């Protein structure tokens, strides 16, 4: 019976199937789920991994890459893992408008300085990557004109943006951009953790931290990722009776409907404008904003739980990271290893200088805590930024996330525009103009902050 089952499985496994079927998705999801559990077990049991705060999704992705079809081929992952990442990002961006807070009055200077600091950092990172690629690296190696923006799409954007950028270029036959962007995102997360912990140790020795006196005093649950009973929090509120529909189902279908709406708009645009296709995630974000406004006007927002939707988005992000890393084509990375290392290392150095210098100039209170948060965000993901912030500010007394959440209301449209129009610009030969606009816009944001008096004269 076991032999029959095994033969049946081998014949229908993704490695041996010529056509994609729902069972391919079933097997891929199951395998990645097993790897995520193994990653979590490794985080709990292996001291080295705990010290580096490596997330299980990253470990799962590495195992999928090493053991999957792009590695040793020991596990039957299909070649569709990169496609999954492109789909998951639509759900993540569709959920974003439902999790953001409304802008509040008061404390405008702190929110404004956080906006200027974060917005300028994002724009300047895109400008640096684009200009380095076009003006330096492309003059040495025969590279894709968009090679340079794989760094900011992977660093500041994370695996989600990397998937979106990669999918946009894949439609025109440039499949290597997806692998390069995913590699940048993976490299960025590892750097965010390792360098971030070094920065924290340096900050504690220099007395820059406001709430952490000694790095060795970190609570054990931050290292293992397992919370004791007295520190556990609710995942959200139940706004619906389970007799009618489960609250989790209710929140999940809202996100799914938004993502579907984004897909329909993208396909409608491409139908009426052949050759021009808006990214699904961008359309999903717009649909999410529209749905949020309808919910606010009709009081439906009272029954939508931002915390629950945030956890749904977080679950999609974990799978996206794992699938994204597993989809990296090692042969492409090896082919571009020299210019890629120059791009990624240069990006890290410039980002580190910006974070440590500008945070002191723009942050009146708890500059180090806000700097370590944005370091994690600018090189990895927002979740990584939060993880590093919790190391130095476990009780969130710096109110960094409060300022960031409100500032991000104004940052998100710019980020969406960057991701949407970057492929269009570079595919049509306007990459240099795009990078120049990012540079000018970033400097203009800093100039605005200076005029507004948000710069700190004495630190």
From TrEMBL:
GO biological process: L-glutamate transmembrane transport
Keyword Transmembrane helix: yes
Domain of life: Bacteria
GO molecular function, a single term: glutamate:sodium symporter activity
Record key words, sorted: Membrane, Transmembrane, Transmembrane helix
One protein family per Pfam: Glt_symporter
GO-annotated cellular components: membrane
Coiled coil: none
Regions crossing the membrane: 20-41, 53-75, 81-99, 120-141, 177-200, 248-266, 272-291, 336-357, 372-392, 404-426, 432-451
Listed name of the protein: ESS family glutamate:Na+ symporter
UniProt organism field: Phocaeicola sartorii
């Amino acid at each position: 019976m076991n032999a029959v089952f095994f033969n049946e499985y081998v014949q229908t496994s993704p490695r041996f199937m010529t056509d994609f079927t729902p069972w391919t998705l079933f097997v891929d999801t199951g395998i990645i789920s097993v790897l995520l559990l193994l990653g979590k077990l490794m985080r709990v049991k292996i001291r080295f991994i705990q010290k580096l705060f490596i997330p299980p999704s990253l470990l799962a992705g590495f195992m999928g890459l090493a053991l999957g079809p792009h590695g040793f081929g020991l596990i039957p992952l299909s070649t569709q893992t990169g496609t999954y990442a492109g789909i998951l990002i639509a759900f993540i961006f569709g959920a974003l408008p439902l999790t953001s807070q409304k802008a509040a009055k008061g404390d405008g200077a702190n929110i404004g300085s956080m906006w200027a600091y974060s917005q300028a950092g994002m724009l300047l990172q895109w400008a640096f990557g684009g200009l380095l690629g076009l003006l330096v690296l492309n003059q040495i190696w025969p590279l894709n004109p968009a090679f340079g923006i794989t760094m900011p799409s992977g660093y500041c954007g994370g695996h989600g943006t990397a998937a979106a950028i990669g999918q946009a270029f894949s439609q025109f036959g440039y499949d290597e951009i997806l692998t390069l962007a995913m590699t940048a995102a993976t490299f960025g997360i590892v750097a965010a953790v390792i360098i971030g912990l070094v920065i924290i140790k340096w900050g504690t020795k220099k007395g820059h931290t406001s709430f952490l006196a000694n790095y060795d005093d970190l609570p054990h649950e931050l290292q293992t990722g397992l919370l004791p009973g007295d520190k556990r929090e609710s995942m959200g509120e139940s706004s619906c009776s389970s007799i009618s529909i489960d609250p989790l189902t209710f929140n999940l279908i809202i996100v799914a409907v938004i993502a579907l709406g984004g897909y329909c708009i993208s396909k409608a645009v491409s139908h009426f404008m052949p050759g021009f296709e808006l990214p699904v995630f961008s359309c999903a974000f717009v649909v999410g904003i529209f749905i949020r406004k309808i919910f606010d006007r009709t009081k439906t927002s009272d029954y939508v739980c931002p915390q629950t939707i945030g956890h749904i988005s977080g679950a999609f992000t974990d799978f996206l990271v794992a699938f994204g890393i597993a989809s990296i084509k090692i042969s492409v990375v090896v082919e571009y290893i020299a210019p890629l290392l120059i791009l990624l290392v240069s990006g890290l150095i410039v980002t580190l200088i910006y974070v440590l210098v500008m945070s002191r100039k723009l942050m009146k209170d708890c500059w180090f805590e806000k700097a370590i948060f944005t370091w994690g965000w600018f090189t990895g993901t927002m979740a990584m930024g939060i993880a590093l912030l919790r190391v130095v500010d476990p009780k969130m007394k710096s109110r960094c996330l409060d300022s960031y959440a409100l500032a991000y209301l104004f940052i998100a449209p710019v980020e969406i525009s960057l991701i949407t129009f970057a492929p269009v610009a570079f595919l049509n030969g306007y990459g240099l103009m795009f990078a120049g606009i990012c540079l000018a816009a970033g400097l203009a944001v800093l100039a605005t902050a200076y005029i507004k008096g948000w710069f700190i004269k004495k630190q």
